[in-house]
Amino acid sequence: MQSFSAKILKIGINPYVLLPATVLEKLFEQARKNKGPIPVRGKLNGKDYIQTLVKYAGLWRLYLNTPMRKTAGIDVGDIANVEIEFDPVPRVISMDPQLAKELEQNKKAKAVFDKLPPYRQKEIIRYIASMKTEVSVMRNVEKIMQHLLGKARFAGRD
Q1: How far is CA 20 from CA 14, 46, 132, in A?
Q2: Domains of the chain, CATH where assigned
């Protein structure tokens, strides 16, 4: 595990820290790649986190979501003490059974879903997985189906 301290910056609405070059090189070595998202884990001010390191606008960034910052007791402008390492555990989110059933029953929507880029498929699956009640799942699965059929916007997308 590598350690560093960095000021929490913000791009748009997203707080993040930049990683020192030496830390990045070690992560690239551990991940056996230096392109695409890199799953990481570690501690933020002593509190455990699991996150994904991504390159945006030419810089590798460790985004600090609200739960991470709240748990660590820090926010934008503060100095974060970061421990980080490559996380080899696969990040797999299963499709909600209701969404799978609806896609199976509607071949047109399924064909559109299958043609979406993998990141967009994951975004939809992750969104439904975040629902807390069955009512929310049902309502949002219906919205997704309408979106896939070209009848509605979903999550700000056409």
Answers
A1: 19, 19, 38
A2: 2-86 (2.40.30.100), 97-148 (no CATH)
